[in-house]
Amino acid sequence: MKRPVRLALAQVSATPDRATNLQQGLETMRRAADEGAQLIAFPELAFDRFFPCERCSAPPRELASPIPGPLTDPFAELAAELGMVVVLNLYELGDGGQCYDTSPVIDADGRLLGRSRMVHVAHFPGFWEQDYYTPGDLGWPVYDTAVGRVGVAICYDRHYPEAMRSLGVQGAELVVIPQAGTRGEWPEGLFEAEVRTHAFQNGYFAALCNRVGREGPEIDFAGESFVTDPEGVVLARGAAGVDDLLLVDIDLQAAATSTARRLFWRDRRPEAYRD
Question: Is the pTM of this model over 0.85?
Answer without folding.
Answer: yes
